[in-house]
Amino acid sequence: MSAIASGFVHPTVGFYALALALPFLPGKAWKWLLLIPPIVAIWSVMTIEPGLYGQASWLGQTLLFGRVDKLSLIFAQVFAIMSLIGMVYALHVEDKLQHIMACVYVGGAFGCTFAGDFLTLFVFWELMSIGSTFLIWLARNERSTRAGFRYFLYHTIGGLFLLIGLLMRYKAVGNFEFDHVIPAQMQVYDWMILLGFCVNAAVVPLHAWLPDAYPEGTVTGSVFMCAFTTKTAVYVLLRGFHGVEALAVAGTIMCVYGVLYACIENNARRILSYHIVSQVGYMVAGIGIGTAMTMNGAVAHAYAHILYKGLLFMGTGCLLYAAGTTKLNELGGLVHRLPWVMVLYMVAALSISGMPLFNGFISKTMTITGAAEAHRTWLAIGMEIAAVGTFLSVGIKLPYFAFWAKPANDKIELRPIPANMYCAMAMGAALCIAQGLYPDMLYRYLPFEMEEMYRPWTTWHVLQALLLLGFSGLAFYITREIITPHAKTNLDFDFFYRLIGRGALALVSKPLAWIDDRWTEAYRAVGLRGLLTLARGTVWFDTKGIDTVVDGSAYTVQNVGVLGAKAQTGRLQEYLGLAAALGIGIFALVWYLA
Amino acid sequence: MSLFGMLLNWLRSKTCLLAVLFFLGLAGLVVANVFVRPHEAEYVFDVYPGFWAVFGLIGGLAMVIVMKKIVQPMISRGDDYYERNS
User: Fold this and answer.
1) What mean pLDDT do residues A496-519 have?
2) What pLDDT sits at residue A557?
3) What single DSSP character describes residue A483?
4) Nearest C-alpha of chain A: how many angstroms from B39?
5) Where are the domains of chain B?
6) Rounded Cα–Cα distance for residues A238 and A299 (Å)
7) Measured on CA atoms in the order A584, A586, A588, A590, is the torsion positive or negative?
8) Is the pLDDT of residue A64 over 80?
């Protein structure tokens, strides 16, 4: 390992310092402090030179907190920008605990990004899990409480896979170093670690926690969550497991699976959640294919995705904040009352759809073109199908039924949306458009060397995107009566997770409870009686044995004391007589013995 | 209601006009596709003009119809299904 440099302000430090300080800060001015850690983080990742920073020893292990290279920097950069946008969006929230947990969560994401070894990674991985669970619970309603427990349970299991994998790996290779694994030489422990990562990346069929939990988070918490958990997983997959064929296939399945479910969903935030599965699918597929172009595509798409997905969740968060629901069948006809929310949402919706002028166009097409150039035609076709579905659901269905469908709705009461929420959305929208127009803003940070940089802005690429999206729009126009959302629960793989949960509950409440009952009976019949007999014996022993000995010695000491007191007469002649008698006695004894 | 909100509301009353403009735009794209082709086909079929138009249309129609008409009736339950069964 090369030399350890110094001078790196680890972004996690700022977030954790704020999390520790917040409970003690009085008044209301503390809310401005929320902006400090993100600004420090942006400054830090923009100015730091690549290298190894912050090494520590703990229990005989070497921990590396700051592996700074092009790959970790580009992820950290977008995390920092998103944390600033997220904090601006959350500025009006007075519940300090929400901010504290957001800091724990975001700080964890930075920790994972810069971690150079599995131990450090694992600790921050779990801190993220705790922080995000609270961001769900803090919505403070029954649904979110239940969803939070399911989320935490699921991520704990995912974390355990990671832990098992890294311990097995330690046993086999003797260190915790976190580096790329050659796909052909993967061992069982590598697969366990990969499985742990895949849980967080929401790889189908391990994905169902995501559309279950994210719609239940707080308005501002879900904005953070949609950005960090899956993208941290994408980062570690990219670092450790690029070129693993299983990921190429799994990623493409994710792309299509997510859009299919989004197509029939009613809850706006759940539609977006399924589209996280789908969009992360592009990244996972790019990682699996493993060429420089698809991996750069994965990184670029992660970057763009964080910005537009955050913006999408901010837009739907505004709906939830203002109208109190994100169920599309209860919304509609709101465009004239929330025009700017609609416009800002549409910037993100067109970005995710890959429309030219927006950042999805410069990132998504890179992965797809990369897949086609690597002769993975079927994978590329799967991604194109997903692009059609994305525009259908997020680009048209969601905004159409939330804002346009139904006559103008003046009856529903809308809570005024704070200016900071608009401000954060405008920041996100500006970046989505800027990157779409100037791809080099993003491309210059891409970590993998390519022979020739991908050029998205060609006449053909633009025309192809417009044809694909335009005619997807026509498909929506034709089927708009069919695609109308209905208030339904669509069963997903979480149905099976819940079955397992219910099975465990049944095992505890039926057979184990029966055994417990029988045991209680047996104990009452045999054990209790035995215990009573034993108690009686103890009492007897106590009175007859202990008391006799202890009390007896006490009485003896008392009697000796009384005798001693009597002997102490205070008359000198008696003491002298006694001493003389004692002296003669000792003399006689010595004389006799000698 | 803001001026911008009123403008958007006015647009709602012009759906026919917007639809016609949309169709004209689509027709224009297909015509453009006759002249603008990929330099080298990334897929076998995308050298033919209109391939991506057909792909988007058929893909979109198939997805909506299959998912809403066939899959959803099989996998959907009441809105409070999990609340009642947990």
Assistant:
1) 87
2) 87
3) S
4) 8
5) 3-84
6) 9
7) negative
8) yes
Q: Which helix (H) or strand (E) holds A265?
A: none
Please give the Cα distance from A226 to A312 (Å, whole number): 10
Assess contact for A403 and A342: CB atoms under 8 A.
Answer: yes
Spatial CA neighbour of A231 closest among A155, A159, A302, A132: A302
- Determine contact, residues A294/A367, Cβ cutoff 8 Å: yes
Percentage of residues of chain A with pLDDT beyond 90: 73
For residue B72, list chain A residues with Cβ-Cβ distance below 8 A. 264, 486, 488, 490
Residue type, A150: R
Place of tokens 């138009």: B53
Name the nearest CA neighbour of A148 among A225, A233, A205.
Answer: A225
Q: Residue A295 in 3-state DSSP?
A: helix
Report the residue of chain B nearest A501, measured CA to CA. B86
Average pLDDT, chain A: 92
List the beta bridge partners of residue A346. Answer: none
Q: What's the pLDDT score for residue A1?
A: 43
Kindly report the nearest CA distance between residue B31 and chain A, in angstroms: 11
- Residue (of A379, A368, A429, A325) closest to A89 by Cα position: A429
For residue A488, the chain B residue with the least C-alpha distance is: B79
pLDDT grade, residue B41 (50/70/90)? low
Q: Supply A296's token pair.
A: 């750069």
- Over residues A314-318, the mean pLDDT reads 96
Is B63 within 8 Å of A392 when comparing Cβ atoms? yes
- Exposure string of B36-57, with b = 16+ CB inside 10 Å and e = fewer, is ebbeeebeeebeebbbbbebbb
With a cut of 60, say whether residue A2 has pLDDT above it: no
Chain A CB contacts of B56 under 8 Å are: 388, 467-472, 474-475
User: Which residue does chain B place closest to A478, by CA atoms?
Assistant: B61
Measured CA to CA, the distance from residue A295 to residue A447 in angstroms comes to: 9
Mean pLDDT of A488-502: 88
* pLDDT for residue A260 is more than 80: yes
Which B positions 47-76 lie with beta carbon below 8 A of chain A? 50, 52-61, 63-65, 67-69, 71-72, 75-76
Contact at 8 Å (CB) between A365 and A456? Answer: yes
